[in-house]
Amino acid sequence: MVTDSQPAALHPETVAIHGRRHTEHAHGALAAPLFQTSTFSFHNAAEGAERFAGGGSGYVYTRLGNPTVRELEERLAALEGAEDAVAFASGMGAVSAALLASLKAGDHLITSRCLYGCTHTLIDETLAGFGIAATRLAAITPASLNAALRPESRVLYLETPVNPTLEVVDIAPLAAIAHRRGLTVIVDNTFMTPLLQQPLACGADLVVHSATKFLNGHGDVIAGAVCGDRERLEALRHGPLKTVGAVLDPFAAWLILRGLKTLALRVARHQDNAGRLAAWLRRRPEVSQVTWPGFDDHPAAALRSRQMQGGGALLTFELHGGYDAAVRFLDRLELCRLAVSLGDAETLVEHPASMTHATYGAEALAAAGISPGLIRLAAGLEHPADLIADLEQALAASGADRPGRRAA
Ligand code: PLP
Description:
This protein has 408 residues and is α/β, with parallel strands linked by helices. It contains 15 helices and 12 strands.
């Protein structure tokens, strides 16, 4: 069994399978035990009172903690190289808890103009409604961050690669600037997973995940997590988790623990498929633009080799013929599924402007660099030749063919 003192010596592929275990696996069971219970009984009144007072090591009520969920938290913390992790009922549960625990009325946060659609709405509407101001930068660089800092700035929130523009943000120099001014640096690592990027090692304070995606990997769970230092996570557990209550169901935690066993294999295959599809799309006359952070001519290629283990499984492209051609293409897909989300076995294709980022509105979409014709593809685990055949027939039906014009 992997203990707290050992996982640093193990490779992430091994940690995803073995460590850390939180509970004794009775009878030598390989799979984690599932404690599908809402509450835990006490031996006597004194023990109950002690547990409510924070004493002893026993459990009280699953909203306050559960052994199966705890095993997942231990596993995710080990993978991210974090002291601790807290699981949530969704990625948005994790994002909102991390922000709520780090901000109060009158505070200011700095982030990019382009973010996942619900994070955008959380910041621009929900948090704004509670008196928390935000500066949204078109590009987060040391210069733009320095210019945006105010005395009341408390959080720098980053997505990298950005959903869906796939810009890559250099975490380390930004975290250094933010820390000099006492800001908490939060990074959404959903697109990369801890196998391809470890934001804490680059200076981030908290990492948030939609565990709905690659971490679970099988498209049957909605979940999230925050990873970081014990002190911040204790505050988060006893604050937003307990009182706002976006608590992960134990069975969902159990499914993610099962999914994690194949994380390394899946991520490698997802990424390989993405690279093949991106390269193929680039050669197509119907396609005007392909973005994949793994391309050698991606603007952040040098940064990628420092911060990431590859380009990930997400790519975007545009067709000659813009929005109309994109809609015809999406409507003709057969094997690839027209669906939001990512990190599932199935290749998922979506239209950010009308789906994941529909809350932006036309003006904000343009400001965020999300064009009306942009298509996002999350590579699945299928054979790449089958995926290419599906893309080929959908491209043929899109009417976007403009021979002679090639990808930029
Ligand atoms: N962060 C990113 C980058 C996402 O893409 C998503 C969802 O797509 C979320 C957070 C929210 O995750 P969930 O849908 O699990 O709440």
